[in-house]
Structure formats: structure tokens, C-alpha cells
């Protein structure tokens, strides 16, 4: 059983205790800019970083009241509170964020959203980070979605990309703000393309008739390839893009992008764990950024308003994924 | 052609993320350009995503005149290093320092390394990153008035430009003694350095000018004239580092991003505005310089009038360099110019005398090293400015600044009018200046050191009866945004290299602010003050309190 009053009282006590136990003389600062609800994965995957550790890193830039929800067969519905603290470089003051961890048996998940509603930090944005694919079908999931101003998914966790993107599109069509970490992973690709445009090389190639090609690994279209293709089409006024596949190394689900015309070509390819931009015989190389969940979430939490470029791409990407079958 | 590496690290608050640019091929110019986005290109780039892509600095070289000076050591190089740390600098980037001291490139690098280590704030120093960054730091010894030095500079610029493919872009940074500004600019012009290579018509040349920009209205106008003989106004970036502070920029966000404050932001609701910039330290070895400048010139004419303009300006139609600067300039031009007879009523000069502060003997200004024992320099200045426009007519803007005040603090306090009628009765209100007086609502924008915003209002004291007490509602930058804010110089250097002059002052702004303080300077230059008139560690001379008292106000305790 979770009594919101009791949990909130425990939080107050936690802060009082932190203040008393503080020994550096610099004090403890309570930091909170949002409520971050983490719908954590059902079964702990040991290869993935623990949500608590990620939250500990995220709080440096995005301090929040984190509410982590875990489903655990046979568990009682209960909550516990604790704080994560850090000390900025060169400062004496500790900055702390509060974390509430809720566990419940799957069949009791429908009781969770009401508890979460009472525990959210008032008047601040609410972000739901849906960390496991199983949540799509979980009891009470839709009620959790309704609490959030923005919901963050990772469609690469789904075996069925088409279904995942279709669901995101439906959710978006209801007015919800959604994000997909599969899109976040494309930032470096997109940035290199934007730079090739600024540089002039891409403008030159796309000045007349030209051809664009996105290559993804494996025969099934990846979420990344669908998003990038959709974004290219939207950015260049609905020009068609050829989607192809090769059995090659990829970053974010893409092996290469090529722009080609009579004026020449611009290629961006994956080579040795880095992206290489080739134009007129010259290259720029950028290593693959560490696409950890922390890095991806850090970027996504920086965008609490609508993300028009993603939203533009989502609808078309869902179509492209559907045609993969 | 070899390989260029530029390694950078994410802030220490984040897990390290290193991007290395490895370049190869015969012609690197287009590659370097790929990482330098000009404004024009960014605006028309269909792939641009402002939510996610950081603004990148175009390939360029920075020439720092006065590179052996304090500013370079304390601010410029640490800021550039930090930008490298955050991978904000382009691969095609170099720094060329100049001063008269004979030094090799390596000597200069070693000196700068020590400075960066010493003055780098909130950041760790990384040896590997420094090695990569320092590779493109160079030095030219030479006299600023010697044409040969500029010929050598041109050779070096061309040499590095062709090696790095910096596209002919050069930022000249004047960090010398102010008396060298005009001769240096003239020499830049004589050497033809103000123009980029003919082969590259898009190349830009810009000039950053440090404060002080003139020492009075006339000298500022003369300096502008000297500059315009060589550079167009749009190529000139007059730096006022206060405008680069995150918290000063936040004033605009606070005013124009929120709907609730702007309707109150006028003469109908605001009683007075107090801007305080206090320092607890003395002149710290800068006695000789400070003696010539004084607080009115050093702080009020530039920084604090710019802050005042930011607080009081009208909203710009868009957040764009010309529009924002137009509004700031308009506000500065609206400052009511004091008549000579008004100066003693609306401006106060002070100078600190020796005192015991925190158990320690502190010398008076006249006892400081390099200071004339009969100095008439103001180490404290306060003034009441009025703005002649519909929004602010009749509202005093009190500005004070000084050395050896009780603490280091910069803030802006907007004091609102009292409630028209107190239904609770004066005797039930605690915490007034005297028992029974109502403490007005205050909105405090804290610039430093505890950056944030506070709102003071009355609240019921717990218990029986209706006793009211002033309470404060605080927003602290530190608690809402755990990340480190960029230093003012980081912000301003990136802006100048990217061609964004929003946070730089323009000729008309500088001249308007000189015009506002000129009557005070004229009056003070003809008077003999009975200095010292305040003890170190206090809030300034009594005359300053009297100035406000005459208008029914008191300085708040910052």
C-alpha cells in the first residue's frame, strides 16, 4: 500500500536528515526542475545500466524528482524514498535530488498511476521514460501516459519496428509529446548532413536532379533508417529517397547515406566505429558518440517543448516501417 | 598534408564524450568549412535543427594584442581552453598573441598554460587537451606602433591560414592599454589586415575592443572615428562582459518570456529600482589604473548602465542583434541628462578610508600602492538616473558601485509600490524599517555571486492574530540548472567568432551612456572632495543614503 502523505513526509524527513548530516559546511541544495517517471524494465537486463545510476548522472543537468516504477511478480505495492547527491567541481555545496522507487506486482500496476499522481512535484513538467518494451501492454500504462507532458520511448527495443512507430504516431496524433531514442541516436548523422549543406558541398550536389540513398543493415528497415529517410524527404521538399540494405557495420541503424548528381556526390558512411563525410575526395571523420541511455536521455530531456523536426519525420517514418513488411 | 586532431570533452558534469576530427586529403578547406557554419548558411539550411545542433564557430584565427596582460591570462585563454574542452572550437583555429615582451611560441604557451591552470574556473585541466589546443597558439613580439610587427603578423596569418584553412577569417582582440587602441587600429589599417584575402570574398575581419571605451564622451567619439576609418561598424564588437553573463541575459528571458511580470514593469507599479555592484576587495595592485578611471567610469558608465538598459528597455520585435541593440540604445538615449546644478543632488562620490575589517587592518585607497596620497578618485559612486519615456517617467533608477564595501554582490532590486491601503493596520506588521511600516514588495535579480531571483512579499506569521512578516521566495540557478554556466568571455568570444553582436555594445549605445554620465564627470572633475568619506567595509558614504532619503527612499541591504 502506498500512502502519498507518508511518502511525502518521508521525503521531508529525508531532507531534514540530509541537512543535519551535512559536514562540508557548504549546505545541501535541493534541486528539482521536473518529475521524471521511469517505467523501468520488467526483468533486469544485466547488460543495461541500472536506472538509478543513469538518474544519478542525469541529475547534474536535469535535476528532477524521479519516480521509478518497477514491476516485480509477487511484490507488494510499496514505495521507498532516497536522495542522490553530488558536488559540482570546485564547490562545497552538495546538490541533491529525490528519488521515489515504487514496486508492484504486474496485476497491481493499475493502482500505480494514482499514487504517482499524488507524488509528482507540483507545477513542474512531467516526463515519462518508458524503458522497457513490455510497458506497451502493461496494465495501467495508458493512465501513466496521461500523466506525462512528454513520453520518451526507445523503439529499437521493440522487435517489431513498424508496430512501435505506428503506436508512437497514434500517441502523437492524440496531442501527446513523444520522443524516440532511435531518433536521438541520429543526431550525429543529421548534424553531418547539415554541415555538408553549410559547407556548400551538399547544396552543389542537390542543385539540380539528384538521387538520395539510405542504406541500413539487414533486410528489415531499422527505425533509424526510417526516421532519417523521412527527415531527408521532409527537409528536401518531399524528394523520394531510396532505401536499401547491405550487410555492413552500422551506427544508429544506418550504414551510409549518399547524395548523387551530375555535379558529384556526398557520402556519409560508417567506417571503423566512426562516421566519415566524403566530398570531392576529402573526408571529415567523427567518432561514434557513446549512445548510452544517459547520453540519449540527457539530450532528450533538454527538449521539453515540441520537437517539430521529429514530429514531422514520425508520421512518414511509420509509413516507411510499415512498408518494410 | 598531415592530420589535424581537435579533441574536446563534455563538461565534467557529464560523462566524457570525445569527438575527434581527423582530417586528411590534399585540400582541407572544404572540410574545415564543414564545421564552421555561418549565420547565413544556418538560416537557410533545411537540415538545421536548433533544438539539437550546437552553433559552431567557423574556422578563424584570433589575434590578441596585449597578450601578456592580465585579461589574456585571467579571462581570454581560460575561456578559449574551456571552449576547446567543450569541443566548441573549429579544427581550423589558431591564436596569435602579441606584446612587446620577447618570447618564443613555447615560452608563450608555457606562460598561458600556467594561467589557464590557475584561472580556469569550475573545470579540470587536462594535459592532453592542452597539448592539442596549444599546438595552434603562437606569439609575435613587437611594438604596437611598429609597422614591421604588422608585416610579420600578416605573414603569420597567411601562413596559418593556408596550413589550417581558416578561410581568411580573423578576429582582432584589443586587450592593450586603452591609449594604444587608436594607433593599433591605424596600423591594422595601414597593413591592410582589415581585409580578408581577395581570393576569399566571404572572409571576415572583426575587431573586439575591450573597455574602457574612451574616458569621456569626446574621447569615445574620437575612438569611434578612428575605428571607422579602418573597420565598418558591423565589424566592431565592443565588449561589455556584464552583457555576456548568463544572469544578465536571463533578465531578458525573465521579462519577455513570462507573462506575469511585464504588465507590472512600469511607473504605475514600480516605485524605484536599485542596482548594486559591490566589491569587498580594494584595488588589488591596480591602484595606478584605478586612480585614472574611478568607479563611475569603471563600472557605472559601461556595465551598470547596460544592465539598467536591459532591465528597462522595451521588448524587441525579435531576439536578433539589431533589434535588441536598437532597444537598448533607445533606452540609453532616453536617460535624462542631469543639469550641472542637479549633479550634487543626484550623484555621490566616495573614497574608502582605512578601517579594521573582520579583525584585519585594511588600508585606505590613498594608502594603496601606486595611488597618489591626495587622490580625488571615486572608489564609490552612486547616482539616481531618470528615464524620459512613458514607461518609466518619474521612477528613479539608483545605481551604486564601490570598492571595499561589506561584500561582493551584484543585484538589481525592483521595489514595487505599497498596497494602496493596508487593511491589517500598521502595528501588526513585523520587519518594517520601523515598527508598523510596511516593507514593500521587492523583486531581486541576483547577478552574482548567488545567481537567482527572489520575490519578497508579506505573509501571515503563524499563530493567533493577524501578524504579517516579510518572506522571500527564492529561485536559485544552482538548484534548477545543475550544469555549469559558461563564463561571460566564453559566451562573448563564441558570439564574436560567429558574428552575433547581440551582446556587444554599439557606437550609439556607448556614446549615449557617456552622455548620461558626462555631467557628473564634469562636476566631479572641478571639485575637491573631502576624501576619504567612508570606512572600508561599510556601504559607502552617508551622502549616498542622504541622496535617497531626499526622495523618500533607502538603500536596501544587498
SSE layout:
The complex is a heterodimer of chains A (325) and B (558).
Chain A lengths: L3 H18 L6 E3 L4 E5 L11 H8 L6 E7 L6 E9 L7 E11 L7 H8 L6 E5 L10 H7 L2 E4 L7 H13 L3 E4 H4 L2 H13 L1 H5 L4 E8 L5 H13 L6 E5 L9 E6 L2 E8 L2 E6 L2 E6 L5 H9 L6 H15 L3
Parallel strand pairs in A: 1-5, 2-3, 2-6, 3-5, 6-7, 7-8, 9-10
Antiparallel strand pairs in A: 4-5, 9-11, 11-12, 12-13, 13-14
Chain B lengths: L6 E2 L10 E2 L1 E3 L4 H6 L4 H6 L15 E6 L4 H16 L7 E7 L5 H15 L7 H8 L2 E5 L5 H18 L5 E5 L6 H10 L14 E5 L7 H14 L5 E3 L2 H4 L1 H12 L12 E9 L8 H7 L1 H18 L8 H13 L9 H4 E4 L1 E2 L1 E3 L2 E3 L17 E6 L11 E6 L6 E8 L25 E7 L3 E9 L7 E9 H4 L7 H11 L8 H19 L8 E2 L6 H8 L9
Parallel strand pairs in B: 4-5, 4-7, 5-6, 7-8, 8-9, 10-16, 12-21
Antiparallel strand pairs in B: 1-2, 10-17, 11-15, 13-14, 15-16, 17-18, 18-19, 19-20
Describe what this molecule looks like in 3D.
- Chain A is of the alpha/beta class and 325 residues long.
- Chain A has helices at 4-21, 51-58, 112-119, 141-147, 161-173, 181-184, 187-199, 201-205, 223-235, 293-301, 308-322; strands at 28-30, 35-39, 65-71, 78-86, 94-104, 126-130, 150-153, 177-180, 210-217, 242-246, 256-261, 264-271, 274-279, 282-287.
- The radius of gyration of chain A is 22 Å and the shape is globular.
- Chain B is an alpha/beta fold and 558 residues long.
- Chain B is built from 18 helices and 21 strands.
- In chain B, helix 8 links the parallel strand 8 and strand 9 (236-238).
- The interface between A and B is large, with 53 and 47 residues.
